[in-house]
């Protein structure tokens, strides 16, 4: 269970990322975070994996109370999560394969498991052919899919995805979305910030809309809801 | 550490070093150069100490025996003095030998020697070498108490100056050596920090995907150790080669000044470069990483 | 006029970016480049501003024959272009304002012109409030808009935009698209790689579809054409 | 360069230095430390040269006059010799003075001096100082051709050894100085390359938005110059302070060994640190940038 209680985030330069956000995401839910550019979606996700800390309020994920955790304890939490970063964050000195396998090595997976699982995940995101390419040898969309593969390879309990389809063509984006749905169906909780209106409207999942750092809408079977 | 994670460690460090060959070369060469400078200084300082030791082998005291003392009494005192713990070496000379030496030192004062040859006004005596310079006064006093001793002559002004100087130089050597070691250490630390700095993003990404601090640190530490080790090795190789060359050249051009043995120099310099490179390299990585792990 | 003649790009690792592409874009045109992820859209754009060089074939933009240009001559070409990079490429040590003004300083604009024009462009992309923020203090969409402001500030003759709306919500994306249309209306040639199906379908501009490095479709009043 | 672009240049360089204060500190301190080591060596070497010069002021030739030569003839030759261009200084001593000196040098050889006092077997003569050591042979030869000269004595074994050694030391000093300067240069270049390396993306982005190479280079060069200048300044300040301290300490503990003047040392070391830091800093930036401008 993910729980935010009166969470505010004010950045060092005085800008507000989030203001007094309270919400709960239960195990097994699939949640879209929507809202205009600069609304605070990424801020919320960063608070969940502890890259930022709230200025006030509480963030709790299962047994982890984030504001009480030291830098040394954070890895324990992060191993429960699969994170897709908005700016991808691949390791530049590693190939596609190594970027994904690194996430498994981090959690101490056995060599056998790694060699079994990594090609499988790369196949899922359609990158088998690029397994030995380095990040700077990939197209933008390919990089993004490596980030998705890395997030999913450990079959995490929680998936936090920050605009995972921003650089993908609609068809590939739909494929990737199906992948997240499948993962969710198998029990993972998914929180996804996205601008993909069509996909959100189509899937009829819970939608949390954020504007200027505040939750303005929270619908169980929601739609993207901004009509251009 | 399991076999698996040892493999990871080695692979990671190797990747770090080979991915940016150019940067690895820059770090290693900086380490090598600064260690080389340190090693050169250590070698020079070893030689200064060597010369100081040699200088101490020069006569330190000249003890003259009263005229008309019998040779057997003189030999008796010689035997006695040889057992004094603060006397390293003691040698007897007769007044004839003294005259010969004077002649050798002032070969052109023929007239003088004509006089000496007729009736030698010089004395028998001993050349005394002590274990260290501070023992000279006590030994001198002990000799002067002996009834057969006419007088005790300390070494001349020049030699005492040189000894005093060499002491200062030796001390200064230690101080400069320590300073230089510190300087080298700082350069190595800075170099590795700069190298790590350019990979800060990578480190942060590792943290964000759940790596523990030690999981991230170990490869960097190993990398630092390797950089230090290779730097130290390169410095040491150049020192060994050039020291060999210098000492053979010196044997020809300054035969009277024997350089300290290769063996001694290599041992001393590699002590410094080893600690300076290997240890500092590893520690520097740890220091350099710290700021980037807080994410 | 942009002209590619039999252009192929084979990367060092053997992957093909483009294969025998020939096309012409006239002054004043508005062209969408569409195609699946990894098709070769970014490769084509990179060839136009000389970050990459074709393995074979000719790239010509007005009087510039790119394969004959040395590194030193490239800036002359690039000052005619406004480029939006897929990975944004902001200068991390500069604020939003400075990132945009840098592009003007590069072409030797006067101080007066800079102080007049930069706030104007920031207003257009909706970033007036963030002018003193550094790139790492911005949301993904805000960063992308800084990149767009930088590309447009010099009123370039050619605008090369590589997925300029990937990180933007549909509403902001539409605003930005209007901005490009306006620029095009004033005479600038626009080449835009994009995955924004709705916008492409709506605008009825020329569409060049690329797949696996080859031009598979080139329609004057085209549609996105891939239906998920 | 217009006023506008000068402003740009200064602002840019300032930004580079202040944005990553930590990295600037690492670069500047590395430069300062390596220049300091160089400066210390230059100072030591200046002192060795200084001592060498002082040593050359010791007697180089002792020329003895045949017995029974009249004092006025002796004074004549003295005057003549003073005009020889290769003679720096020449001093006359009578045989009585020679005896006094001998007495001073061997205060305990009473018997010997008893003899000398009766009938002095020594000679009158000249102490001759040449401009440089290589002029000794020609001066010696010129003297020995004079009819009143009995013989010419070169300086003793020890002094000639010291002179020879000091020559070698002086030469070795130059070589090591050059090597050290090279090493320092390489360290500075590497340091600045590492610093530039961590900003390679930035440089490439500048190129991609249309900046010319010199537009990108100048701020980096200025930054390199500033790093070099600050590093050199820091090194020089420490040298000046510590040299002042060392030389006042030396005046007490080794009064017979006058250190080279502060002024001389500062001039010489700042020559090295100035070139080493300032120039190399700027050039290093140029070198470091090269690889990243090809985009
Ligand atoms: N490190 C930071 N320092 C200061 N302000 C920040 C920082 N990070 C984000 N902000 C500001 O906080 C607000 C919310 O940013 P956030 O990244 O959460 O937006 P977002 O909803 O993810 O937008 P987008 O869809 O464009 O990615 C923005 O106005 C942004 O400028
Ligand atoms: N530097 C490189 N080295 C090797 N291969 C590369 C390099 N850059 C791109 N590629 C490959 O070339 C192909 C085309 O890449 P490109 O970036 O042009 O795709 P794209 O159409 O822009 O895709 P996207 O929509 O995902 O950005 C891809 O298969 C990619 O893997
Ligand atoms: Mg975001
Ligand atoms: Mg692309």
How would you characterize this protein structure?
The complex is a heterotetramer, with two copies of chain A (228 residues) and two copies of chain B (295 residues). Chain A has 228 residues and is α/β, with parallel strands linked by helices. Chain A has helices at 41-48, 74-78, 96-106, 111-124, 140-152, 170-185, 197-203, and strands at residues 2-10, 16-25, 30-34, 56-61, 64-65, 81-84, 158-162, 189-193, 206-211, 214-219. In chain A, 32% of the residues lie in helices and 25% in strands. Chain A starts with a strand and ends in a 9-residue tail after the last strand. With 295 residues, chain B is an alpha+beta fold. Chain B has two domains: 3-55 and 168-293, no CATH class; 60-154, Alpha-Beta Plaits (2-Layer Sandwich). Chain B is built from ten helices and four strands; from the N terminus they run ααβαβααβαβαααα. In chain B, helix 1 (3-19) packs across helix 9 (213-253). The longest helix of chain B has 41 residues, at 157-197. Chains B and D meet through helix 2, helix 5 and helix 7 of B and helix 2, helix 5 and helix 7 of D. Residues 41-42, 86, 162 of chain A line the site of one magnesium ion.
Form type of chain B: elongated
Percentage beta strand of chain A: 25-35%
- Please write the string of helix (H) and strand (E) elements of chain B: HHEHEHHEHEHHHH
Structural class of chain A: alpha/beta
Radius of gyration of chain B: 30 Å
List low-confidence stretches of chain A: none
Report mean pLDDT of chain A, rounded to a whole number.
95
Please summarize the sheet with the most strands of chain B: 4 strands, antiparallel
Tell me the total number of β-strands of chain B.
4
Q: Order of helices and strands of chain A, N to C?
A: EEEHEEHEHHHEHEHEE
* Unique ligands: adenosine-5'-triphosphate, magnesium ion
Compute the number of helices of chain B.
Answer: 10
Order of the strands making up the biggest sheet of chain B? 2-3-1-4
Low-confidence stretches of chain B: none
Distance between the termini of chain B: 25 Å
Report the count of strand segments of chain A: 10
Of all protein chain pairs, which has the greatest interface, and how many residues does each chain bring to it?
B-D, 50 and 50 residues
Mean pLDDT, all residues of chain B: 81
- What is the helix content of chain B? over 70%
């Amino acid at each position: 269970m993910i729980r935010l209680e009166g969470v505010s985030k004010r950045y060092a330069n005085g800008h507000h990322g989030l203001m007094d956000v309270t919400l709960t995401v239960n195990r097994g839910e699939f949640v879209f975070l929507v809202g205009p550019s600069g609304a605070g979606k990424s801020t919320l996700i960063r608070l969940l994996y502890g890259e930022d800390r709230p200025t006030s309020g509480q963030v709790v994920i299962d047994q982890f109370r984030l504001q009480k955790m030291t830098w040394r304890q954070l890895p324990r939490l992060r191993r429960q999560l699969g994170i897709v970063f908005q700016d991808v964050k691949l390791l530049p000195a590693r190939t596609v394969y190594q970027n994904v396998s690194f996430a498994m090595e981090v959690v101490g997976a056995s060599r056998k498991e790694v060699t079994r699982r990594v090609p499988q995940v790369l196949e899922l995101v359609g990158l088998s052919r690029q397994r030995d390419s380095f990040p700077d040898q990939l197209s933008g969309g390919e990089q993004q899919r490596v980030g998705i593969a890395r997030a999913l390879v450990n079959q995490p309990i929680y998936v936090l995805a920050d605009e995972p389809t921003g650089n993908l063509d609609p068809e590939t984006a739909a494929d990737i979305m199906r992948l997240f749905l499948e993962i969710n169906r198998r029990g993972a909780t998914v929180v996804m910030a996205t601008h993909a209106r069509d996909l959100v409207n189509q899937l009829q999942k819970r939608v949390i809309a954020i504007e200027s750092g505040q939750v303005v809408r929270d619908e169980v079977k929601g739609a993207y809801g901004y009509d251009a | 550490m399991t076999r698996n994670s040892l493999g990871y460690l080695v692979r990671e460090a190797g990747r770090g070093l080979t991915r940016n060959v150019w940067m690895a070369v820059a770090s290693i060469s900086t380490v090598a150069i600064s260690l080389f400078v340190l090693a050169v200084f250590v070698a020079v300082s070893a030689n200064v100490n060597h010369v100081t030791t040699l200088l101490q082998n020069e006569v330190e005291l000249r003890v003259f025996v009263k005229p008309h003392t019998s040779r057997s009494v003189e030999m008796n005192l010689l035997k006695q003095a040889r057992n004094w713990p603060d006397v390293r070496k003691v040698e007897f000379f007769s007044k004839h030998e003294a005259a010969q030496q004077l002649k050798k030192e002032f070969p052109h004062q023929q007239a003088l020697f004509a006089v000496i040859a007729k009736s030698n006004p010089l004395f028998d005596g001993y050349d005394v070498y002590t274990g260290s310079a501070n023992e000279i006064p006590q030994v001198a006093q002990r000799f002067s108490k002996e009834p057969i001793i006419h007088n005790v002559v300390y070494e001349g002004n020049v030699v005492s100056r040189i000894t005093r100087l060499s002491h200062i130089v030796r001390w200064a050597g230690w101080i400069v050596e320590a300073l230089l070691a510190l300087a080298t250490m700082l350069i190595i630390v800075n170099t590795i920090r700069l190298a790590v700095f350019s990979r800060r993003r990578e480190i942060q990404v590792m943290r964000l995907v759940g790596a523990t601090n030690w999981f991230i640190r170990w490869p960097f530490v190993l990398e630092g150790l390797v950089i230090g080790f290779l730097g130290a090795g390169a410095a040491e190789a150049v020192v060994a080669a050039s020291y060999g060359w210098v000492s053979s050249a010196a044997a020809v051009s300054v035969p009277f000044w024997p350089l300290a043995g290769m063996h001694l120099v290599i041992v001393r310099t590699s002590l410094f470069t080893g600690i300076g490179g290997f240890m500092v390299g590893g520690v520097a990585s740890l220091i350099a990483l710290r700021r980037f792990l807080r994410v």
